[in-house]
Write a structure and sequence with these properties.
This protein is α+β, with helices and mostly antiparallel strands. Helix content is 18%, strand content 27%. The protein has 13 helices and 27 strands. The longest helix is centred in the N-terminal third of the chain and has 15 residues, at 126-140.
């Protein structure tokens, strides 16, 4: 099956049709103009400017799409480089897509990266946020600017677009953060309050390769291993590259992610040398109050987008209710490099995300009649149904179904007798190397969870009866687990699977929580979760009581999935994932007694919609 929007009724005008009908009246320049922009503290940032080339030579003005990247705005190419070697692997898609359709595109190396001067003192430093406002000031002062700015990009670039919008610059009218976090702590590095054990190192390897111009390191990175790449491209005024080399020397002082991120085991931890700086400082959600009401937002993610990026898209959508918001979530991994549905027809997605971004920018930046206002604000893809849906609110379904953990490894609707099942942490067990986590570590994963049955077999599992009808879950499954542990801390990993009538086991989604963070609280305005919220602070952390039951209520990652008639729903529990998460407590593998039935019954609550496929009128719910 395909994730294409062709033939769907979820849109009145599908993105692919909008793109096909959209004129392409311009050419793009063979090369950009490139220069340094000087910031308030004297730091010089390298920028490339691509202007649409009209058929005539008359001067025109254009809205601008600003791309802020730490991954090189442009590589220098060795002499004799292959014609197919594009010097801008990170920004080329935006350059090629938007310039010919009438947008100026400005790509900037953020400070401490590429050909820009300065050092990086943080992941997504607040200094970069201040820089983005100054860059916007420079753009609107240019003779080719019409005074309107948008921003987009995948991952870091998408979060940078949020930083830009959060400055409240009056020219910023629309941003499209693609596969980007809202809360960096929990969406990215500490899902459930547990540090991912490989991500910081893999990120640091990439950034040392880029920032230090270590081509031997980049040769091992699949996104930057082109042998024609020979470091960052100097700006036009830097004819002999001396300025670029001086900038790279400054980058040797950049922070290192494994050291930096370990300063923030809890969200209220602060840098010992800067008590004002915490995990909030590099999270877009912290600056939510700076968004102007007239800045429109399109959030895009995928159901297999890391260990929390889909949460980021949903939380952003819910946390900025005064802004004009749109959201798109498909059957994709990080960056939509892969269609992750087990029923896909091809690995590469058929859906063109930038077609949706174009319509969004045409509407809010160019003021075109796009019909976007007649579309539902939310579109999502249901896997195993292999169908796009539209919705006017999140979550799109209001029904729920609660299943109780019962004896004999069962999930059932009826109350069960009291009992316990033991789950012993195995600090050598993991979930393999074809999971939702690898893409974030720059691993070119295309076959997701093909070996899931092997890993899941070592876990404690509970199965429902065969389903009498098909049923869709769209949103956050929530587990409510009561446990007693023989250690004062533990990590609970919970997985949801579909066991098909022929016995085939399909991974659906997962969730994780460190037991210290079990206490929930009301979410703040900038984190309007519709699932159980906790702030992951040291102040609210509490060890497990010795010999007493404790309650862990938390959400699994969101998903849209159709369980087939005759399938069973399976809930699996583990206390470690050595392949992706640090072990806790260190060197003390806990044994967990999972309580079921009685007054402290452990349950699974599913966002439930039962029955046949939606009719077209139900599929496109209007605001």
């Amino acid at each position: 099956m395909s994730d294409s929007d062709a033939g769907t009724t979820a849109w009145r005008v599908p993105p692919s049709r909008y793109l096909a009908d959209r004129p392409v009246p311009y050419a793009r320049p063979a090369r950009p103009r490139s220069l340094y922009l000087t910031m308030r503290d004297g730091c010089r940032l390298a920028a490339d400017i691509y202007l649409p080339q009209p058929a005539g030579r008359e001067e025109q003005v254009y809205p601008t799409i600003l791309i802020l990247t730490p991954y090189y705005r442009r590589f220098a190419l060795r002499e004799g480089a292959a014609a197919s070697s594009d010097p801008s692997p990170n920004a080329a898609k935006y350059r090629d897509f938007f310039v010919q359709r009438g947008y100026a595109v400005v790509v900037v190396d953020v400070r401490g990266t590429g050909a820009s001067f300065g050092t990086r003192d943080s992941f997504r430093s607040p200094k970069e946020r201040d820089d983005s406002r100054e860059i916007a000031d420079w753009i609107v002062a240019q003779p080719w600017s019409d005074g309107i700015i948008g921003s987009t990009g995948i991952s870091y670039l998408g979060a940078a677009s949020c930083f830009l919008a959060s400055t409240g610059h009056p020219a910023v009218k629309a941003i499209a953060p693609l596969f980007a976090v809202w809360n960096t702590y929990v969406d990215h590095f500490y899902p459930g309050g547990v540090l991912l054990n490989q991500l910081a190192k893999s990120y640091d390897d990439i950034m040392v390769g880029l920032d230090h111009d270590r081509r031997d390191i980049l040769a091992r990175q699949p996104y930057f291993d082109n042998p024609d790449f020979v470091g960052p491209q100097p700006v036009d005024e830097d004819g002999d590259g001396a300025l670029c080399r001086a900038a790279v020397r400054e980058h040797l002082g950049n922070f290192h992610m494994p050291d930096f991120i370990s300063e923030f085991r809890f969200t209220d931890d602060r840098l010992p040398y800067d008590p004002s700086f915490g995990a909030h400082s590099f999270s877009p959600c912290h600056y939510a109050g700076g968004f102007e009401r007239d800045c429109a937002i399109l959030s895009v993610s995928g159901w297999m987008d890391g260990a929390g990026f889909s949460n980021g898209a949903i939380a952003r959508y819910l946390s900025l209710p005064k802004n004009r918001q749109h959201m798109l979530i498909g059957p994709w991994d990080h960056g939509a490099r892969t269609n992750v549905s087990p029923w896909r027809g091809a690995v590469v997605p058929d859906f063109d995300v930038l077609a949706e971004v174009l319509r969004f920018f045409d509407h809010y930046l160019m003021g075109h009649e796009t019909g976007l206002g007649e579309e539902a604000p939310i579109h999502y893809f249901c896997m195993h149904e292999e169908r796009w849906h539209a919705a006017s609110a999140w979550p799109p379904r209001t029904g729920t179904k609660t299943l109780t953990l019962a004896a004999n490894e069962r999930l059932q609707e009826a109350p069960s007798d009291a009992g316990t099942d033991l789950v012993a942490a195995d600090f050598t067990a993991g979930t393999g190397s074809s999971t939702r986590h690898e893409r974030l570590a720059a691993v070119n994963t295309t076959d997701y969870y093909g070996d899931w049955a092997d890993h899941e077999a070592a876990m404690a599992s509970y199965d429902s009866d065969p389903l009498p009808r098909t049923a869709e879950i769209t949103g956050h499954p929530v587990v409510d687990i009561w446990l007693t542990a023989n250690q004062p801390d533990a990590v609970l990993h919970v997985y949801l699977s579909e066991v098909e009538s022929d016995g085939r086991i399909r991974y659906v989604t997962e969730g994780v929580l460190r037991a210290l963070h079990r206490h929930t609280k009301e979410p703040p305005e900038n984190q309007r979760w519709t699932w159980p919220f906790r702030d992951f602070s040291r102040a609210d952390a509490e060890p497990l009581p010795s010999g007493e039951p404790a309650r862990l209520r938390f959400a699994l990652l969101p998903v849209s999935w159709r369980f087939q008639k005759g399938s069973r729903i399976r809930l699996s529990i583990a206390a470690a994932d050595a392949d992706h998460y640090v072990q806790l407590p260190h060197g003390r593998p806990p044994v967990l007694a999972i309580h079921r039935g009685g007054d402290i019954a452990s349950t699974l609550q599913l966002p439930w919609h039962e029955g046949s496929q939606s009719s077209p009128s139900q599929e496109r719910e209007m605001p």
